[in-house]
Model the fold of this input.
Amino acid sequence: MAPKKQDGAHEQSITMQIGPESQKVAVIGAGAWGTALANLLATKGMPVKLWAHEREVVDAIRNKRENTVFFPGVKLHQNIMPTGALPDAMHQTTLVIFAVPSHAARAVLSQMTALLSAPVGFVSATKGIEEDTLLLMSDVMKELLLPTMDRAVMVLSGPSFAQEVSKGLPTAVTLAGQEPMLVKRVQGLLMTPTFRIYASTDMVGVQLGGALKNVIAIAAGVVDGLKLGHDARAALITRGLAEMVRLGTAMKADPRTFYGLSGLGDLILTATGALSRNYSVGVKLAQGDTLEEVLKDTRTVAEGVRTARAALGLAKKHKVDMPIVQEVCQVLFAGKLSRQSVMELMERAARDEAEQTGK
Done:
C-alpha cells in the first residue's frame, strides 16, 4: 500500500493537542493491559474513558471499581469512566490508547473511523499480527483511520505484566512513532516514577518484537512443561531471538531494536514469567492438554496462538527460516507431539551461530 500524503497543518495540530494538561484520553479495550494503562493515566489525574466490549466489565468497574472479569483484585481509580459505547469513549478525545486483541482490531477500528472528525494521537498497545492479511497493527490502523493520522499512529511495547504495572513495580517499555515531537509528548504523558518509557522510530521492529516473543514463549513453556531443564530453555530463547532478528531484518526493521526492551526484554519476561499466558499455554500443551482444552479454561487472550500462524506466513512471504515458529505451529494446529518437535529442532543440521539468514 502506497504511503498517504500527510497534511502539515494536521500534523502540527496533533502535536499541539498532546500535552499534560486537560487531556481527554480514551483507552479502547478493557483487558488486563488496557485496564492497567487506563489506571496508570487515571492516577496521574487524567480523566480516562475506558471502553469495554463486555457489558459485565463496564458494570463491574462502574459499581465495584474493579475489572472482575479480566483484572480482578485491582482497585481502579475514580478517574476511570467505563463505557460500552464507542461514541461515548471517543467524544472529544485527544489521545487514544488501543488495547484490543489483534483478532478483533479491524472490526473495532472500522467502527471508530466514523467517530474521528479530526486527527488525534493514537497509540497501539496491541501485541499481534493480523492473521488474514499479515499486517502489523500500525498498518491496519493506517489503512482504516483518517489519512491525516498516518504520522499520529504510535506503538507501545516492552516487558510489562499488567499486574506489576498496577502495583507500581518498576517497568520500562518502548514507544515508537514517526513523529518525534508527538512521541515525546506522549512519552511524558505516560511516564511515572515507576513506569519508564524509551522513545524509538522503529515501529516495525517494536511491533515484531512484541508479537513474535509470544510465539517463542509458547515454545519456552513447552520446554519447561517437558522438564527439559534450564539449559534447553536458555538455548530456545536465544535461538528464538535469532529468528526474530532474521524476520525483522527482512522486513526492514532495525536489528538493534530486537536487543532492546521490546525485543529481548519482552522475550525474557514472557518466556520465563509465571504470569505469562503464552508461556502457560506451552506448559499445558507439553503436559498433554489439547489446544482446545487450554483455551476453553480462560477468557484472557494468549496472542501467541494466533500470532504463530501469522508469523509463519510472514516467514514464508519473506523467505526467512523460522524453525521454532514452524514447530510451534505444528504442535498447536497439526497435533504434533511437543517432545517430537523439540527433538527435531535439536537434530537439525549443524550451522554457524552467527548466520542470520538462509536455511
Observations:
- The chain has two domains: 8-201, 208-346.
